[in-house]
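I'd like us to work through together how a protein chain folds, taking it slowly. To get us started, please write out a protein record for me. Go ahead whenever you are ready, and we will take it from there:
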Amino acid sequence: MEEVTLDKLAKDVGTTVDRLVQQFAEAGMKKQPGDRVNEDEKQALLAHLNKSHGGSGPSEPAKMTLKRKEKSTLSIGGGPGRSKSVQVEVRKKRTYVKRSALEEQQKADQEKAEQERLAAEAKRKEEEAKAAAEAKAKAEAEKRAAMTPEERKKADEAKAEAERLRKAQEEEARKKAEAEAARQAEEARRLAEENEARWQEEEAKRKKAEQEEVHFTTSQTAQAAEDEQDEGEERRARRNKTKRRGKDDERDEAPRREKRRKGSKRSTLQHGFNKPAAPVEREVKLGETITVGELANRMAVKAGEVIKTMMKMGEMVTINQVLDQETASLVVEEMGHKVVLVSENALEQEILADRDEETNQHQVSRAPVVTVMGHVDHGKTSLLDYIRKAKVASGEAGGITQHIGAYHVETDQGMITFLDTPGHAAFTSMRARGASATDIVILVVAADDGVMPQTLEAIQHAKAAGVPVVVAINKMDKPEADPDRVKNELAQRDVIPEEWGGDVMFVPVSAHSGEGIEQLLESVLLQAEVLDLKANASGMAKGIVIESRLDKGRGPVASILVQEGTLRQGDIVLCGLEYGRIRAMRDENGQDIKEAGPSIPVEILGLSGVPQAGDEATAVKDERKAREVANYRQGKYREIKLAKQQKAKLENMFANMAEGDVKELNVVLKSDVQGSLEAIADSLMKLSTDEVKVNIIGSGVGGITETDASLASASNAIVVGFNVRADASAKRVIEQEAVDLRYYSVIYDLIDEVKAAMGGMLSPEFKQQIIGLAEVRDVFKSPKIGAIAGCMVTEGIVKRSAPIRVLRENVVIFEGELDSLRRFKDDVQEVRNGMECGIGVKNYNDVKVGDQIEVFETVQVERSL
């Protein structure tokens, strides 16, 4: 409870301290200047003052009268040359009456009396009912005494049945009464709300009419007085200046018109605007991005208010800055409004809706899409190679798969489409993308190696996508193969074989000898038959971008897996941020084809740019609409990227100031395909530490150009090419500017060398290493130097140039450097173990017998990530 001093209270209420002390005394409380006053004492004083002024407490007055008095002067003409001024007084009086406390008390007394009457009536009826029940019970008892046992039993049963019916009727009546009471209460509440709304509307109309009436009366009276005064002046001028009548009339008419104009202007200055009594809550519609100025307009506030609110939230923004949807939502909620998230691209939704209407037609069976996943070098590509009867693994750099390969093969049992994903740790995003586009996962596990980290990751991707798994235990031709070990390890990860009561098929295979391949294909087709895979083969095509790259001769090339419909040469395709008409289509063998149905992978040419791997590819009818959607997506992508970059800059500004200078390794990264670019960029960013960070200032698909070399030169960056080379102009710039250019074809080497380069940028670490120890055997006094310690070197070597520490009972008591080091009478630079010497410690004379002098040096230790 808040307490204040008497002096502070007197200052707040605007009275003197003595007067307040007197009022407290009249209220029965003794107070002195400087005493503290609590809330109860304030309330007691307020009640006493109300009572002393004739009130009954802090209540509102029962009657309120408003009076208004206005005076004006009218000029009345009394004849030629005579005018008379009359004072007019307008009085208005309005009384507002509130129901008095006496009426309230009378009403309460009447209600109390009515309740007492009803209670007495209920009590009387209860007594009468009780007496009647007793009489009835007595009569029944007499009647029962005269009955036989069979009659008594029948009577009891009839009585129980009657009692049950009575209770049921009472329960039904009670429920009806409750429902009726609830209905009446709801009706009363609705009528009360309607009456309240009608009363408020009538009161608003009455106040408005009253204001208009007062304003009209005042304006009319003032106008009439001015007109009378003008007419009198006109008559006097016409009588006195008859010779110059025309000019005078003209001169008199002008001021009269001016006065009338001013009067009419004065009457239009009033307005009916009323400030809202409570804050207005608005529904603010937000797209993916919005500027600060536009956000302020939608909330109907000034941009400065939005900027002020964001400064309080720790964000420094300008009026034209783009905000992302998350930040804008927080600002709108902070300012007390409601957020409505909307999709701004109606054209895109219209195109996709048209395509969906066509695809929901007759469905036909399609081939399964199978993704081969597993740890690196467990034989995924070799297994697929045996199935395709072609050498693919030998074409991959280092023998490991670096891109998603999509192939479809015809088997005796039917067609199967395979996706081969990399097993290296850097390609996590590519494996996740492969799992999301597939129907069945073949998990390849080497029988001689067992379950490895990427094997577990593949299991997680398959479970996250809800895809069934078929386990292929590879390398069964090796003597050290142990399939039972693989089954045990996978069973620990909830991958239970069918022979152990699970639902996962395990097939032992050998990609080298071909053992078990047919059984593996049968298992895949059996699983596909259980899934009952279907798709519409006649409608507009829909698929997913598996891989994309920039070919120097053919332009942007995208690998697409068709999922629904039929993709034909000449179709207009919308792929993420890019669009275009298909100029050519090729299968995985490089053969030109004209169309591709569901579950067929193809390479298409003709897009406006390189799409992102994982983007949805959709065939549309109208090229103009496709271009508009692609342009819209590109604009929104730029805005979202800019908003996120700005947000990251603002969030990291103070953190960077606190951390100090952080060294950065700038990298310009170019790759042959989009999927590898994503994986390499992600792996490089994960190498960043608190001291050294990887900053990818430029990346892209295709060869290294002169622009890339110039960017690297300007930002002191290294240029990394993965399966790409620099053209002639880029090589010339690289040689002139001495830019570090590196080519790689295996991701292991790229990551290791960048890691080594970052290790070279780490700040060196210094370590103190003890190189010698001398024991003080005697102390001599020298007038020039001071105390000279006669020592025996017991360990290592004592150097004159090295720093020393003086230890007494193994505790450091001084740290400094040597002033002199002598052996016999000669100054020496060092004394080795087992020799005696004289040591003079600079600026320290408190050396005692038994002390130890420790000699050390600071060495630099190389650091690595």
In short: Confidence is low (pLDDT under 50) at residues 263-270, 390-404, 423-427, 656-660. The first strand starts at residue 4 and ends at 5.
